[in-house]
Inverse folding.
C-alpha cells in the first residue's frame, strides 16, 4: 500500500467488466488506484495502462502480483481462468475481489475453497454485486425483520435485452441465473436443495440453438419455492425484478429505478439497456466495500463458500436443464471458516 494508504489494485482481464472496473477504480472508488492491468492482449493492455498514471501493463497475472505497487487483485477475466489467478493470489498472499463465477464448476471451486482454508483466513470477496443493490438490501432487511412473517415463495424475473453471440443454454444457467442462486441464498439465508428447469415454446426472437425464455425453480432447505423467469433476448431492455410472498404480505423490487413521467395522456419510466447500467450503483458499492475492508485488513461480503455453493447449484441446474428432470444439489459440509 502506498505511504498514504491507497490500495494499489491489479485488474486481471480488461474485457467488458474489467474495463468498467478500471474506470471505477480510477474515477469513482476512493482509497484505491489501478497499479497494474493484465490481459493476454499485450497491445490492448498497454493502451489501457498508458492512460493511467503509474499503471503497469502485464500479460501474466503472477508477474502483476509481484509488482511492488500491487497490494490487491481484482479478477475480471473469463471464468475458466479464475482458479489459476486465485491460487496465484493466495501464493502472493494478496486480497482478492473475484468477479462471478468464482470458478465454472463445483470441483474447481472446491479446490479454491480448500486452498483458502489452508491459508487459515479468508482472502476472497466474490463479485455477487446484487447483494450491494439498494433495493435488494431493503428487501433483505424487510424479510429479516419478520414483519411480513415467513417467506413462502419468491418470484424472479431476469430479462436481458440481448446476449452476445455464442451464448448457450448452459450459460443461461452458469452466467445469468447464477445471480438468482446467490441472491436466493443471501435473501433467505438458506441453501438451495434442488433445481428444476421448464421451457415454454421458444420465442421467435431466441438466438439459434437457445431455448429462450426458461423457467428455473429452486427448492430451499427451509421449504421455500423460488422461480426465475430467465429471458435473455426480450429486446425491450434489461430488467431484474423479485417479489417475495410471505405469510402476512408481499414485497417487490425492480419495477422503477428512474423518474416516472406523466405526459400527453400517458405515464411511464425508462428501462436500463444492460446490467452494467442497471447495477452501476451496486458495482460501485461492492468495489468500495471491498477496498474499505481490504484497507482495514478485513474480508467481507460473499465468500468462497458462496462461490462454491453457487457453482454446485449451477451444476444441478445444467443437469436439470439437459435431462428435463428435478436434480438435487450436492454440497459438502460448510467448513468452520465460513460459518457466521
Ligand atoms: C452477465 O454475465 C451478468 O452477470 C448479468 O448480471 C446478467 O444479467 C447477464 O444475464 C449475464 O450474461
Amino acid at each position: 500500500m502506498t505511504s498514504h494508504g491507497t490500495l494499489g489494485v491489479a485488474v486481471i482481464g480488461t474485457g467488458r467488466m474489467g474495463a468498467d472496473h478500471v474506470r471505477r477504480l480510477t474515477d469513482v472508488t476512493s482509497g484505491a488506484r489501478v497499479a497494474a492491468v493484465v490481459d493476454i492482449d499485450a497491445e490492448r493492455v498497454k493502451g489501457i495502462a498508458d492512460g493511467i498514471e503509474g499503471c503497469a501493463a502485464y500479460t501474466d497475472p503472477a508477474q502483476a502480483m509481484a509488482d511492488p505497487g500491487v497490494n490487491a487483485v481484482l479478477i475480471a477475466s473469463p471464468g475458466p481462468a479464475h482458479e489459476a489467478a486465485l491460487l496465484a493470489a493466495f501464493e502472493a498472499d494478496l486480497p482478492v475481489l473475484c468477479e462471478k463465477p468464482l470458478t465454472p464448476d463445483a470441483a474447481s471451486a472446491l479446490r479454491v475453497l480448500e486452498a483458502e482454508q489452508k491459508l487459515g483466513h479468508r482472502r476472497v470477496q466474490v463479485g455477487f454485486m446484487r447483494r450491494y443493490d439498494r433495493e435488494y438490501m431493503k428487501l433483505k432487511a424487510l424479510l429479516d425483520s419478520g414483519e411480513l412473517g415467513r417467506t413462502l415463495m419468491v418470484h424472479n424475473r431476469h430479462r436481458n435485452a440481448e446476449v452476445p453471440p455464442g451464448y448457450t443454454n448452459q450459460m443461461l444457467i452458469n452466467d445469468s441465473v447464477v445471480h438468482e442462486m446467490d441472491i436466493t441464498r443471501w435473501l433467505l439465508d438458506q441453501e438451495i436443495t434442488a433445481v428444476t428447469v421448464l421451457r415454454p415454446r421458444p420465442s421467435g426472437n431466441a438466438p439459434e440453438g437457445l431455448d429462450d425464455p426458461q423457467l428455473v425453480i429452486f427448492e430451499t432447505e427451509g421449504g421455500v419455492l423460488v422461480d426465475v423467469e430467465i429471458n435473455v433476448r426480450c429486446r425491450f431492455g434489461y430488467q431484474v425484478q423479485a417479489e417475495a410472498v410471505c405469510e402476512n404480505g408481499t414485497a417487490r423490487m425492480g419495477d422503477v429505478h428512474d423518474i416516472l413521467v406523466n405526459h400527453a395522456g400517458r405515464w411511464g419510466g425508462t428501462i436500463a439497456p444492460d446490467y452494467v447500467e442497471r447495477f452501476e450503483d451496486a458495482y460501485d458499492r461492492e468495489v468500495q466495500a471491498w477496498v474499505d475492508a481490504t484497507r482495514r485488513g478485513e474480508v467481507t461480503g460473499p465468500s468462497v463458500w458462496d462461490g462454491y455453493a453457487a457453482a454446485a447449484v449451477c451444476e444441478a441446474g445444467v443437469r436439470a436443464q439437459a435431462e428435463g428432470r428435478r436434480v438435487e444439489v450436492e454440497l459438502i459440509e460448510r467448513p468452520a471458516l465460513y460459518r457466521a
In short: Residues 169-188 form the longest helix (20 residues).
